[in-house]
Amino acid sequence: MREISYSEAVRESMSQMMREDEDVYILGEDIGVYGGAFGVTSGMIDEFGPERVRITPISEAAISGCAVGSAMTGMRPILEIQFSDFVVIAMDNIVNQAAKMRYMFGGKAKVPMVVRLPSGSGAGFAAQHSQSLEAWMTHIPGLKVVQPSNAYDAKGLLAAAIKDDNPVMFYEHKMLYNVKSEVPEELYEIPLGVADIKREGKDVTIIATGLMVNRALEAAEQLAAEGIDVEVIDPRTLVPLDEKAILQSVKKTGRVLVAYEAVKRNGFGTEIVSLIAESDAFDYLDAPILRLGGAEAPIPYNPELEKAAIPQVHDIYQKCLELLNR
Amino acid sequence: MREISYSEAVRESMSQMMREDEDVYILGEDIGVYGGAFGVTSGMIDEFGPERVRITPISEAAISGCAVGSAMTGMRPILEIQFSDFVVIAMDNIVNQAAKMRYMFGGKAKVPMVVRLPSGSGAGFAAQHSQSLEAWMTHIPGLKVVQPSNAYDAKGLLAAAIKDDNPVMFYEHKMLYNVKSEVPEELYEIPLGVADIKREGKDVTIIATGLMVNRALEAAEQLAAEGIDVEVIDPRTLVPLDEKAILQSVKKTGRVLVAYEAVKRNGFGTEIVSLIAESDAFDYLDAPILRLGGAEAPIPYNPELEKAAIPQVHDIYQKCLELLNR
Amino acid sequence: MSNQLKGVSNQLINELNLEKHDLTKMMYDMILIRKFEENLKQLYQQGKIHGTMHLCIGQEATAVGACFPLTKEDKITSTHRGHGHSIAKGTDVNKMVAELLGKVTGYCKGKGGSMHIADMEVGNLGANGIVAAGLPLGTGAALTSQMKKLGYVVLCFFGDGATNEGAFHESLNLASVWNLPIVFFCENNLYGMSGSIKEMTNIESIAVRGASYGIPSETIDGNDILEVIKATTAAVERARHNNGPTLIEANTYRWEGHSRSDARKYRTREEEKEWKKSNDPIERFKTVLLENGIITEDDFAELNEKAIKQIQDAVEFAESSESPSLDTLMTDIYV
Amino acid sequence: MSNQLKGVSNQLINELNLEKHDLTKMMYDMILIRKFEENLKQLYQQGKIHGTMHLCIGQEATAVGACFPLTKEDKITSTHRGHGHSIAKGTDVNKMVAELLGKVTGYCKGKGGSMHIADMEVGNLGANGIVAAGLPLGTGAALTSQMKKLGYVVLCFFGDGATNEGAFHESLNLASVWNLPIVFFCENNLYGMSGSIKEMTNIESIAVRGASYGIPSETIDGNDILEVIKATTAAVERARHNNGPTLIEANTYRWEGHSRSDARKYRTREEEKEWKKSNDPIERFKTVLLENGIITEDDFAELNEKAIKQIQDAVEFAESSESPSLDTLMTDIYV
Ligand SMILES: Cc1ncc(C[n+]2csc(CCOP(=O)(O)OP(=O)(O)O)c2C)c(N)n1
Ligand SMILES: Cc1ncc(C[n+]2csc(CCOP(=O)(O)OP(=O)(O)O)c2C)c(N)n1
Ligand SMILES: [Mg+2]
Ligand SMILES: [Mg+2]
């Protein structure tokens, strides 16, 4: 099958959906001829025109609210927040409006919108352009939260997100944009709420999200060389979360590492740990539930420091050994 | 000792600190003759004047940034966000500026400010005025997060927060404002990062935050009647967190319930659970680590529904029995 | 009422060429809003309404006047002080009272309360608990109208205090740049919660802010419903004909405190008395209608009776309705 | 350069009554900024600088001119495009280059990079990666000056794009209401990242927005350093004498792309050429200085050499500096 990059997969998904459904449009800063900060929307304005690929002023509060207002009246906006860090300025519309509107109105509204959020560190953009704040969103009932770790998932999950009638926070990782993998040409959907077992194994379960899925897979290869059989689970969507897949794997291996890039303290991994710790899988545990998360520090600029701030393949490898008392 | 309410304790702490240190001032909406939405600043403008009790326009982005800017240049602002839900509009200044400035500038700035955040449900204010979003703040390195559960703690912790040279998010609970307890008249500090064992016990540990501390204590009384000896730990500050106190208690009892009002999914309790699950206390556990948190729903208006949305004394009582297989 | 104030209205009633039927309906709606609010106040005092609520007594002319030029397809976004807007846009008072009493027959099944009443069917996109939040939402609703060529216009209500929020600024700019069919309608009642707009800005009128966005704007007497109708009709026409947004600042006054716990220390009782005595929008409209022979004192009394009855019925409907069952806690979160 | 442009400058140089020493220093600073940026471009191409950076070539007159009336005690807040502001405010180029190379000798010990250079000692409160974030921070810094009677003034730099953020609106209003000693200095270089300000607003000039806050404002030629000095001096004086904030819109142009990855499809090469050819702020200032006999061509060449040398030294200093040790990852988070 042909290979395309994560960023091409996102673009293709949007474009195919826009061809299918004329209510879908995209809005954001510099998404026209500039193609967006990461080139994800490159060329889309040529096909769809400035009406459906709407370049906005630098006004995150208005454009996010505009997305919500248009969604509740019949459109299906895709909002690109240039760097996910800037979502701080759009939080009222996401948290107090989009997420709660249906509930507050007793079920009489729906807000079908997707917010695309390029996130994560690794590009030298420093503290205000490198955060991974998806955990915030998972804490807000009414939002769905998606975090694809490869091009194939990105395309299928985005299609499902656009078709979903709820506000969906779609976390894209900057360092994955150029990573290629096999992606079918036709449009397909990956349902929200279904985890993917990226690698089967019986000794240790790693539940990893976003960029960490790829690192976990690398670590698993290295561990395989040592005769350790690692299972890697990628939840793909944090809300809804495929609890069953996670708990099943834990029961099978009895040893769990949860790996995420976001700041360790109160990152989404803590929810996964808590789920396991309160479940009947608890009795199957042969070791503490270990976590790897980002340092409790802002993301630094210097490349070596930046690398040290988030889990690397070797850290995952080490933690797995620790789980096996080796 | 005299008894005063939580809200009086907060006011007294601010006033005493303002008498001591002329760099301390307070800013916020309607905090003048109106006394703030919850009356916490009542009368303060009479003593300190409009220069130090600064009524602001309804401009959460500007006033939060103004607080940060004045803090980095030598003042010690206390910012009252009228309802903690409105902090969404101030997030850039808190998360991208206040929290990160010292780090981004390589240690060359400090931001001594306190953000006071009336939070929580129970007053019939519905979805946009009842949230408990302290978990967001704990996820941001550079912020400290405090959550007092009674008047005595509120006064001492606030004094420490005002003296602290870092940005401190100070979560006050609306339903505690009128609750009275013994509070010394003189100014005192409770250091940030020291948990309080609100009740000693040997059978079960409840780690509870904010309003839930009081409910846990009530449940503990009921359980005592059944011969179950509950220890109730109030972390008081979520960041820094007194991990030692928590783990010690867990090792002692082997059974843990974590209770918080915020939405269960990814609330701060998940961090506490994860800490325990990855620590050496894991081996002392005789049961899964149970959690009680708010429903994964926006806070509803109807009083019965609202009550059902967050843990009640009886829920805590039940969960403790469950921990003991009873 | 001063002769000057009367003069304007008498002139306008001819100029606007309104039907007796419309004028009477508007008179009725204003009375209905007043009675609705007075009743809520009672229910609150009786402990039947909990939480908070924001009454709009004294501001009936802006609500009814601004909604008059709107068709059912046109939409409004409202505020925390939204009961009047809702009623004026055709939202059913039975379901409103039921919502305020937290009943399952309420607009939000008891989940929303005063600050979240919405009625999509009549184009009421909802009250809002967040100051200025209706402006970006309204902008988006106007975008839908433009993109789908639906022809409807959106009117956003907001207060003077809201104009100091960033959302106000960003929304007006965006709506202007995209030439959206929207009317920004500011009810300047002189105060936010307690902050006097004179102290919270350094400008003579909020209308001057339109120029920052290339949006035409004007300041009007918001207690003269005819002036409100005139300005809003023109603005709605502009929007309807793709001539973009308008900003209207309507001066008015809220008679009650900000919410139920307000001791009103930030303003004088004299000021309140003055507004009530000489600038009651209902009295002013009534006088004009009487002087122009549109209604009689008897008609007016009848409208009053009818409104009282309608509210009584609404209260009865609400009180006899069921509370939501506890399992609705977890419904309506996701589609 | 057109005769018209020259005319203004020649008139101003007499009116402003500046010392030769100051004029030469400003000429030097402008050259230094240009050389600094040109060198960064090279270092970036050589892969020695990673991440992103935003060059201000073509905007040297606004940075240097606006900082001229400021004392060391006065403060600035800057932006993502902040190198020029920093240099003009007296920030050391050695430590700046070191920071850009991520070295421990950099202003931020290598933790901040281009977007976070700050130097409290010379009143540089920092660049900022968030558009418009400097405005509320500057407002707070001005409040400190007022409350503690420190007498300093704050000058906030920001771009045209930033004026569509809510933070712009809220800050100008707050600063006006509190009569703070602050100058809001907008570098209108016609574009945000790619968005043309003509398309992102519906107004002739950003200066019209001052009226929304009761703040005096003017639009100036930002590539004529003398005009910048004149306007800023007046604004700083107003602020210094408790007459409140001013909004200055200075028209200018960035020669380079927004950041290093910009193909500049949103504007024409002709437009760029035109600005470079006939509106280079350095050339314009040089011409005025030559015509008025302040410096000679030789002097200018010497300033150029000196600037090149200073930057070379800075690069050497930076390249020979250490990287931060890994344990600094966890320092400087809390006091
Ligand atoms: C973002 C936000 N800030 C503050 C509040 C609290 N609050 C509710 S209404 C109000 C005053 C609003 O004033 P105005 O816009 O003039 O409307 P009015 O109440 O006068 O109708 C305030 C401060 C809020 N609900 N939302
Ligand atoms: C809140 C926020 N939104 C968007 C961005 C991305 N961004 C960085 S610079 C920029 C353009 C800023 O334009 P302007 O204010 O005119 O400054 P200029 O780059 O022209 O100097 C944008 C959109 C950001 N950094 N912060
Ligand atoms: Mg008002
Ligand atoms: Mg610009």
TrEMBL record, chains A, B:
GO molecular function, one term: oxidoreductase activity
Transketolase-like pyrimidine-binding domain segment(s): 4-179
Pfam family, one: Transketolase_C
InterPro entries the record matches: THDP-binding, Transketo_C/PFOR_II, Transketolase-like_Pyr-bd, Transketolase_C
Keywords recorded for this protein, A-Z: Oxidoreductase, Pyruvate, Thiamine pyrophosphate
Superkingdom as given in the UniProt entry: Bacteria
Matches recorded under SMART domains: Transket_pyr
CC cofactor: thiamine diphosphate
PANTHER family, per the entry: PYRUVATE DEHYDROGENASE E1 COMPONENT BETA SUBUNIT, PYRUVATE DEHYDROGENASE E1 COMPONENT SUBUNIT BETA
NCBIfam families noted in UniProt: PRK09212.1
Record's protein name: Pyruvate dehydrogenase E1 component beta subunit
Lineage of the organism: Bacteria, Bacillati, Bacillota, Bacilli, Bacillales
From TrEMBL, chains C, D:
Domain of life: Bacteria
Cofactor(s) it depends on: thiamine diphosphate
Xref: InterPro entries: DH_E1, PDH_E1_Alpha_Subunit, THDP-binding
Gene Ontology biological-process annotations: pyruvate decarboxylation to acetyl-CoA
Chain ranges of the Dehydrogenase E1 component domain: 28-324
A molecular function (GO) term: pyruvate dehydrogenase (acetyl-transferring) activity
Statement: the UniProt record of this protein carries the keyword Nucleotide-binding: no
Keywords: Oxidoreductase, Pyruvate, Thiamine pyrophosphate
Pfam families: E1_dh
PANTHER family: PYRUVATE DEHYDROGENASE E1 COMPONENT SUBUNIT ALPHA, PYRUVATE DEHYDROGENASE E1 COMPONENT, ALPHA SUBUNIT BACTERIAL AND ORGANELLAR
UniProt-recorded name of the protein: Pyruvate dehydrogenase E1 component alpha subunit
Organism per entry: Ureibacillus xyleni
